[in-house]
Design a protein that fits this description.
Elements lengths: L2 H9 L4 E4 L6 E6 L2 E7 L6 E5 L2 H10 L3 E3 L8 E5 L7 H18 L2 H9 L4
Antiparallel strand pairs: 1-2, 2-3, 3-4, 4-6, 5-6
């Protein structure tokens, strides 16, 4: 999966937005204002930091070389995923984006979750 496929898929989810809060090359994807994915647009290899359940994060790291502890993130809750490594099937990459999104949605306040649920899909 290349960056435009990733970006398009992530932005198709309810309540998502994108911004560059740190600099002009670090893209953050958010759900209801909370980050669920971060990627550098200037990196030689396309990698994405994705939120992950801690037990699942360890399982993924043990199984795939393309999944590493989150770079510059809380290593228990974030993975850095090499999207173009060729090791991870596209279906798994989509599932990891979905999982990250769901992990962040779980942390939203009740009113935010209710507002998200009432939104129309794009």
């Amino acid at each position: 999966m290349h960056i435009e496929q990733f970006r398009s898929y992530a932005l198709s989810k309810k309540g998502t937005s994108e911004d560059f809060p740190f600099d002009e090359v670090t893209l953050c994807l958010r759900v209801m204002g909370k980050i669920f994915a971060i990627t550098g647009l200037d990196a030689p290899e396309f990698k994405v930091n994705l939120k992950c359940n801690p037990d699942f994060a360890i399982e993924l790291r043990e199984r795939y070389d393309a999944v590493q502890p989150g770079w510059h993130m809380n290593k228990a809750n974030w993975n850095t995923v090499a999207f173009e490594s060729g090791e991870l099937p596209a279906e798994l990459l989509y599932q990891l984006v979905d999982h990250s999104y769901a992990c962040v949605v779980k942390t939203l306040k009740k009113a935010q979750r209710e507002a998200l649920e009432s939104m129309d899909n794009f």
